[in-house]
Write a structure and sequence with these properties.
The longest helix has 53 residues, at 220-272. By secondary structure, the protein is an alpha/beta fold. It has 23 helices and 10 strands. It has helices spanning 2-9, 14-54, 61-88, 91-107, 111-115, 118-160, 162-169, 171-181, 183-209, 211-216, 220-272, 278-290, 293-320, 375-382, 405-409, 426-431, 439-448, 452-457, 475-489, 505-519, 531-536, 554-560, 563-573, and strands at residues 337-345, 350-359, 364-368, 390-395, 398-399, 412-415, 493-497, 523-527, 539-544, 547-552. The protein folds into 2 domains: 2-320, ABC transporter transmembrane region fold (Up-down Bundle); 337-578, 3-Layer(aba) Sandwich (Rossmann fold), CATH 3.40.50.300. Bound molecules: adenosine-5'-diphosphate (ADP). Adenosine-5'-diphosphate is lined by residues 114, 346-347, 351, 369, 371-377.
């Protein structure tokens, strides 16, 4: 029970919970041992005073030396064990948490990543996990262990004298109550600081990504000013947070230590009225030198724990997002894609409404329609990058919501406008299409995609690094690399988002040639912009406001003289097309 709530509250792994428990056990041992040390001192003093005042024989000094040595050895052992449990072992926790987080992220629907701010997500994986690791390694076991050991010490002291016990320890619950009272404030401050931190990393990322545009527009100074302001704001929120928690932590520490004064006063009063002897008073004086020590550290930790709650919540939010699960085998009967009454909303706004159509194997199905009508959304749903909220999507008769996305994607090639290239060689960028493909296979695919010619002009041919996200390549070249990837993969379904804007005529012809090799005998769903593709398609689906407005062969639709015919006429009159 305790383990479960720890696990959830601080987003720990199972091993983290185990380590925290071990940390608690050894902290209790360390704190009790400290009290045992005080007890030892007390008994030594008692027998010396006995010798001095009552002429009792001096006890055997070897007994005390032996006991002291034994105490030191045990103490050393217990401290080492506590260190291992609280600090040493837990460094593995950070690794485990990151791995389990990465596993979780891998299973989330891909759409999740376009919804979340990526700087924010990176901050969770790096910053939040670090913070929580620090809390779990340095704070949790220590704090809970200190609660338990102090409760045990209180019970023991009550056996000697309950009045003195209360005089000594009353400040502890009051101090903690004060800190818990400030909890909401600490959490709020921490949320504000976190937001400010994400704004800063967003700003830096944005500046780095757009440095060319910023320079070209001569906006460096203005942009940097804005960035400095964000950094300043972040610093201020951090200081404010530290200050407000610092006030509470120090006030709590002072209140706890008022116990020293009350113990002395109460003890003096009790001695004067003859209710206790001096030795008992002496015992309590020894105890107050040590009893607050575990909490000195804990008070600072508890403030950190409150603040880390924001990090834990952010991690828990990821763990609570439903994953896209499904079977890890996929054996469809053919590769027709069938949309049946599909409805979908990214947020609240319904983007697709009752969309039904079939994209047949061996045919090119073109999605056309005005911008924002839902064409890309249809393509994303077909590959289960998102899950449809209504209706069903079947590939070869199998409902894709029952298939694990990674498994499903082995049957899909995607050639989208925003080609993602990695800072690696041309060879490796194409090889991404099929892991383990030989160099010859990669070259053959590149050739078929019309990449060969431009790659051979690169200084190191296929071994040329292409810069971050293919910065050294033109739009058409990047797209041909992505087509080569798809050719290498040779998946039965191709989702294609035609891009025309960035291509010149020569490049366009080359891309077109590469595509015809890719599309042969596949199920092709193309988001069409070019009338040439539209006219050559086997089937047209016209989308309008998230609904299928018309569907059929291009020549039939033209004859129908509906939406499609209107679009064609419009584009012709705008002289945008070359049919
Ligand atoms: P098309 O491809 O036809 O231009 P889309 O499918 O991209 O249309 O978009 C359909 C609607 O969904 C648009 O109103 C667009 O603003 C919205 N939309 C697209 N992607 C997202 C997203 N990731 N989050 C929220 N809304 C989105």
């Amino acid at each position: 029970m305790f383990g479960k709530s720890l696990k959830r509250k601080y987003a720990l792994t199972d091993r983290g919970v185990h380590n925290t428990k071990m940390g608690m056990v050894w902290t209790v041992a360390v704190n009790l041992l400290m009290m045992l040390g005080m007890g030892l001192l007390y008994f030594m003093m008692q027998s010396f005073i006995g010798t001095l005042t009552k002429n009792e024989p001096l006890p055997n000094p070897w007994l005390y030396i032996g006991l002291t040595v034994l105490f030191v050895i045990i103490s050393l052992f217990v401290h080492i064990m506590q260190y291992r449990a609280t600090y040493g072992l837990v460094y593995r926790e950070i690794k485990d948490t990151r791995i389990s987080l990465a596993e979780r992220l891998r299973k989330l629907p891909l759409g999740y990543f376009s919804k979340r701010d990526l700087a924010d997500l990176t901050e969770t994986i790096m910053g939040d996990v670090n913070r929580l690791e620090h809390v779990s390694s340095h704070c949790l076991g220590y704090l809970y262990g200190s609660y338990i050991s102090t409760a045990l010490i209180a019970v023991m002291l009550a056996f000697y004298d309950w009045r003195l016990m209360i005089a000594c320890l009353w400040g502890v619950p009051v101090a903690f109550a004060l800190l818990f009272g400030s909890r909401r404030l600490a959490k709020r401050q921490s949320e504000i600081a976190k937001e400010a931190a994400v704004t800063v990393s967003d700003g830096i990322q944005e500046a780095l990504e757009n440095i060319r545009e910023i320079r070209a527009a001569n906006q460096e100074e203005r942009y940097l000013d804005g960035l400095y302001k964000k950094i300043d704001a972040h610093e201020k929120t951090l200081l404010k947070g530290e200050l407000s928690t610092g006030v509470f932590v120090n006030a709590a520490s002072v209140i706890m230590r008022l116990g020293v004064a009350t113990t002395v006063l109460t003890g003096a009063g009790l001695i004067l009225s003859g209710q206790i002897d001096f030795m008992l008073f002496f015992l309590f004086l020894l105890v107050i030198t040590r009893v607050y020590a575990p909490f000195d550290q804990s008070l600072a930790m508890i403030a950190e724990m409150f603040m880390s709650q924001v990090s834990a919540d952010r991690l828990t939010e990821i763990y609570d997002t439903p994953t896209a699960e499904g079977a890890d085998t996929f054996s469809p009967d053919g590769h027709d894609i069938v949309f049946e009454n599909v409805g979908f909303a990214y947020n609240d706004e319904q983007v697709l409404k009752g969309v039904s159509f079939t994209a047949k194997e061996g045919e090119v199905t073109a999605l056309v329609g005005p911008s924002g009508s839902g064409k890309s959304t249809c393509a994303r749903l077909a590959a289960r990058l998102w899950d449809a909220s209504e209706g069903s999507i079947k590939v070869g008769g199998v409902d894709i919501s029952t298939v694990e996305p990674e498994t499903l994607l082995t049957d899909f090639s995607m050639v989208f406008q925003d080609v993602v290239l990695f800072d690696d060689t041309v060879m490796e960028n194409i090889r991404l299409g099929r892991h383990g493909a030989s160099d010859e296979e990669v070259r053959a695919a590149a050739k078929a995609a019309n990449c060969d010619e431009f790659v051979n002009k690169l200084p190191q041919g296929y071994d040329t690094p292409i810069g971050e996200n293919g910065a050294k390549l033109s739009g058409g070249e990047r797209q041909r690399i992505s087509i080569a990837r798809a050719l290498l993969k040779n998946a039965p379904i191709v989702l294609l988002d035609e891009a025309t804007a960035s291509l010149d005529v020569e490049n366009e012809t080359k891309v077109q040639g590469a595509l015809s090799a890719l599309l042969k005998n596949k199920t092709v769903l193309v988001i069409a912009h070019r009338m040439r593709t539209v006219q050559a398609a086997d089937r047209i689906i016209v989308l309008k406001d998230g609904r299928v407005a018309e569907a059929g062969k291009p020549e039939d639709l033209l004859k129908q003289n509906g939406e499609f015919a209107k679009m064609v006429r419009l584009q012709q009159s705008a002289n945008l097309i070359s049919v």
